Amino acid sequence: MQTFNIHDAKTHLSRLVERAAKGESFVIAKAGKPLVKVMALSAPEANEVKRLGFLEGRLSVPADFDRMGQVEIEKQFG
């Protein structure tokens, strides 16, 4: 997450608001100390973030997943 100091945030407010509206949150800091997090209103709250299924469609599980390494396991544990 990117951090901007107050001066830069004031100077580029329109551009930063557009970025936040597209889902890119950022932090505004004063003298290097983070003060606020800016995010879109439609973004889920931290305790509402959906974690289950977040990698759906990005991974594939082999058909023989439950048998992978079976020979080595049998050798080691009989």
Describe the structure in your own words:
The protein has 78 residues and is of the alpha+beta class. The protein has a domain at 1-40: YefM-like domain (YefM-like fold, 3-Layer(aba) Sandwich), CATH 3.40.1620.10. The chain is 29% helix and 19% strand. It is built from three helices and three strands; from the N terminus they run E-H-H-E-E-H. It has a three-stranded mixed β-sheet. The longest helix has 9 residues, at 13-21. The chain starts with a strand and ends with a helix.
Order of strands, main sheet, comes to 1-2-3
- CATH topology of the domain at 1-40: the name is YefM-like fold
Envelope shape: elongated
User: What sequence of helices (H) and strands (E) makes up the elements?
Assistant: EHHEEH
Tell me which oligomeric state these chains represent. single chain
Q: What about the largest sheet?
A: 3 strands, mixed
Please report the total strand number as a whole number. 3
Distance between the termini: 50 Å
Uncertain ranges: none
Q: What proportion of the residues is helical, as a percent range?
A: 25-40%
Rounded to an integer, what's the Rg over CA atoms?
Answer: 23 Å
Specify the CATH class of the domain at 1-40. Answer: Alpha Beta
| Architecture (CATH level 2) name of the domain at 1-40 | 3-Layer(aba) Sandwich
Quick one: CATH superfamily of the domain at 1-40?
Answer: YefM-like domain
* Helical run tally: 3
β-sheet strand percentage? 15-25%
